[in-house]
Amino acid sequence: MLLQISEPGAKPSARPRRLAVGIDLGTTHSLVAIVQDDRPIVLEDWQGRVLLPSVVHYHADRRVEVGYEAGAWQSDDPENTFISIKRYMGRGRGDVPERQGIPYRYADTSGMVQFETRAGRVSPVEVSAEILKALRERAVRALGSELDGAVITVPAYFDEAQRQATKDAAKLAGLEVFRLLNEPTAAAVAYGLDQGAEGVYAVYDLGGGTFDISILKLTRGVFEVLSTNGDPALGGDDFDHAIYDWLLQDTGIPAPAAGDARRLLAAARAAKERLSEQARTRVTVPLSNGSTVERTLTCETFEALTEALVKRTLAPVRKALRDADLAIGEIKGVVLVGGATRMPCIRKAVAEFFGQAPLSDLDPDRVVAIGAALQANVLAGNRAGDDWLLLDVIPLSLGIETMGGLAEKIIPRNATLPVARAQEFTTWKDGQTAMSIHVVQGERELVSECRSLARFELRGIPPLVAGAARVRVTFQVDADGLLSVSAMEQTSGIEAKIEVKPSYGLNDGDIARMIEDSYRHAQDDIAARRLGEQKVEAARLIEATEAALAADGALLSEDERSVIRRHVEALREVAEGSDWEAIKRASDALNDASTEFAGRRMDYSIKTALTGQKLEELQV
Amino acid sequence: MISAATRDYFELFQLPPVFQLDIDRLDIHYREIQSRVHPDKAAHLSDGEKRLFLQWATLANEAYRTLRRPLDRARYLLQIHGVETGEEDNTAMPAEFLLEQIEWREELQEAQARRSQPALDRLSVRLRREMNALLDSLATLLDVERRHSAAAEVVRRLAFLEKLGRDLDQAQAELEA
Q1: What digits encode the pLDDT tens for the residues B114-127?
Q2: Residue A538's domain spans which residues?
């Protein structure tokens, strides 16, 4: 038996710290960070590297490699080696720009793209899950314990389908998502806390494959996103491709072999990175036909090649400022995010546009992961009292299809999350018991020009004469920007049943199948995983309930308290065992028994929130 | 237990139900409430509690949005007093007001046709002045004289002008692009 001996003088902690990491799931590379001893640290792999290339390689036996090991296959096995997979998350075939040098074989599917590999068909969600799994394993190895949860960052401009795909990937990787956090918000968290800054900030994020501009307002510990804009298909990769195209012109080869294309692209990227430090660089690429491409690239040439790309970033910046109703002079500071902002041409353009030098104290590659880790630490409840709140907005309007293929907006862009709106529908035929609703996201008037998010089939409407039924459909978007829908027939109070068919996502059945698949291949035990999950959930529930009873037990009568205590004890007992279904039943029972208590605590909390406020107001 | 769905917005923020609302206090109270009910505060709690937080945070956002914007605040006050603004079916606006609307629209079209940014800017300034005057009269009608049906008509006029303002913004955006 091991004895726990605490350091002399060390305070025994009230309860164990929850391990919560921040993950920057990037287009070209990904990182994982955690807060330890109040300081954010970015976790390294066994070789001391913090960046994990977002590259996944599939072998025939479904063995998977991620990161540098996978990157080694880029030239020799490009069809089974996925780079920049983030571009495909929640996207249909028609959304992804065709471009040279992309060797994947698309599977013949509708909705989100899928690829044929030698290990079978894979979706971008599964590929991303492999990256997340690698980061999770890195964290578990470094921390010596399983994780309680994670904050995962997404571009602010990601639509619902892309956010859902990200969350699905996390689920597949066995991560509990505390929150999907916008990347620029994470960057502001990293900077805002270090500098105690208040005011309006612009976050200019040029990553590998996405460009985002966000205008954030920081006041009294609240981060509000005033507006976001961007280009989901513009990033550092495009600068590589600009050099690649320039190199190709020289070779006279119209379409190089896949392996040559990879080598040229890798050389282009390396040259771009060298130009952040030096004025000129030599590019040498041996080709498979025995010839060699050799050219000298100067900063001037590079700036000329990429001038249009740099300009393309400024149009969304202007739009974001207009949406926020702000002049350039009102921006207090500009935060740079993304490795591509190391390019001097970008820094120069940003400084000229905003009339001030951008903030660059933190490593632009790490700043998002650091912010995510700080937020994860707050959401895990590891900080008491002095925590902060992040308010985000929905980046694109949500609407439904109406007559003539027009989109009617239901939730406007930039509404603060979470948000819900209800809409009433009626039947147009006598005795009609079902209707279908098409939800879209985007700013355009035509449904065909918006993104199709989901189709809902409403069933169980009571048969009435045409126009008599009144079905109230509520669209709820949560703090992560994810949609859920409920429906109620108003005249009868009958809940209409909803079947969700996400247009670009996976349904729950797909995810369950993928999880089982991954276990078959990993020869792991799915039952063990279920049991583990239920035990974690039970422990969390017991701890939260006991904390609530200790803090606000006075809101209940003695009888009510003892009912809840009995359920806690019952759960504690079964949680010792190994029957995951019994643990789940006991957890559900405790949840049900505490619903009323939770409601009373909420009411009490809101009342005291404002009475406790009065003193502070007097000081204003 | 008071359910999130039935809570009065003014009561939620513990502010008096008036049109001339103390916006600074509204801002402070909103943040204070949101810092208690936002789903982030329930990230490590049970699913049932997560749902409860989601409902309340959604309500706080809706209430804040409604009270923050003067026109929506007026609509909400009238709704509390049982007065429908009837903006969908009550199109019987006074003839002089409708004539004025036609003139506004003609000026907007002319400025667009000439692609004149200064003309659009002048129009925007005049429109804002007109709307501010109407908002001032709303304050008197709602908070002092309590003439709700007269207030409802001012709300309908403001709705027209707000729509015009959106089209004006759109025209300016198109000219900049």
Answers
A1: 988 899 999 999 99
A2: 525-611
**Which has the minimum average pLDDT: A2-11, A48-57, B85-94?**
A2-11
Same domain, A371 and A505: no
A528 confidence band (pLDDT: 50, 70, 90):
confident
Single-letter code of the amino acid located at A427: T
B34 touches chain A (CB under 8 A): yes
Q: What is the pLDDT of residues A37-49, one digit of tens each?
A: 889 999 999 999 9
Task: Give yes or no: residues A176 and A75 share one domain.
Answer: yes
Nearest Cα residue in chain A from B14: A610
- Find which of A12-26, A226-240, A267-281, A446-460 is predicted with most confidence, using mean pLDDT: A267-281
Picking from A415, A478, A602, the nearest residue to B52 by CB comes out as A602
The values of phi and psi at residue A612, to 5°, are: -70, -15
With contact defined as beta carbons under 8 Å apart, do A166 and A158 qualify? yes
> Does B147 reside within a domain?
yes
- Known catalytic residue at A168: no
CA proximity to A539, closest of A551, A550, A547, A529: A547
Name the percent of chain A in helix, strand, coil, to the closest 5. Answer: 40, 25, 35
ipTM computed for the complex: 0.86
Q: What count of Cα atoms within 13 Å lies in the side-chain half-sphere of residue A486?
A: 9
The CATH number of the domain holding residue A63 is 3.30.420.40
> Would you call A86 a catalytic residue per the annotation?
yes
Instruction: Count Cβ–Cβ pairs < 8 Å, chain A vs chain B.
Output: 110
Residue-level pLDDT at A242? 93
* pLDDT, tens digit, 9 for 90 and up, residues A382-406: 876 556 778 888 878 899 998 888 8
Alpha helical stretches, state H, A173-292: 183-195, 236-251, 258-274
Closest CA to A152 of A245, A23, A49, A277: A23
Q: Is A443 noted as a catalytic residue in this protein?
A: no
Mutation test of the interface with chain A: which of B40, B55, B124, choosing the one with the most A Cβ atoms within 10 A?
Answer: B40
Burial profile B131-152: b = 16 or more Cβ within 10 angstroms, e = fewer: beebbebbebbbbeeeebeebb
Q: Which residues of A195-216 are buried (b: 16+ CB within 10 A; e: fewer)?
A: eeeeebbbbbbbbbbbbbbbbb
Question: Nearest Cβ partner of B54 from A222, A391, A418?
Answer: A418
pLDDT digits (tens, 9 = 90+) for A315-344: 999 999 988 889 999 999 999 998 889 999
Of the pLDDT bands very low, low, confident and very high (cuts 50, 70, 90), residue A6 is: very low
For A412, which DSSP code?
-
Domain holding B129, by residue range, is 95-176
Give the gyration radius of chain A's Cα atoms: 26
